[in-house]
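Session log. Operator J.P. requested a structure for one protein chain; no other inputs attached. Running the standard single-chain path with token output.
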Amino acid sequence: MEDTFKTISKPSQEVLHKDRKSKFFGYAFPLSKEDEVKSILDTLRKKHPTANHVCYAWQLGVESVKYRANDDGEPNNSAGMPIYGQIQSFGVTNVLVAVVRIFGGVKLGVGGLIQAYREGARLALETSEIVERVEYAKIDLIFEYPGMNKVMRILKQHQIHILSQKMELNCELKISVQKSKADKMIEIFQEVQGITVNKPN
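Structure written below.
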């Protein structure tokens, strides 16, 4: 189904890959929005105050995918993109993978860096618990109180989850629907007189 996706259930354990005295610490974190990236990276920098580079890549979304890859001062495309390649290779989304490098005095060259960052990312994702999740769409229903029974009957019939409700003369319900079924549910509610249906972006 197009509304299921793979992600990781919780932050991975710290993994360590060594290459010619350089240490590469790999981490993977579940991510629900872009705003979370900075604080995770700040935490890693505090944890490794002697680190020369904290390189990372993240991806969010299923249909409209957003991603970023960052080399953090390493040669262009030698760190962020190899990390992002592993995110794609594992087929996961809503995830941030970071590899922290502590330089060991020997230069690895671009090829060596690509390999080391790829390996750090691979180990981090390999130790992560990968789970399948369902993507949901939120829908707002606005109707007058007398329509309550009709609305509740539809919700029960389709086993729809209510996120929040405001019961007054004008009632508002926020519901959560499996994304692949959202358009069909909107159609059903639009056919009922007196219900306004909004699908927030």
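Operator note: The longest strand covers residues 22-30.
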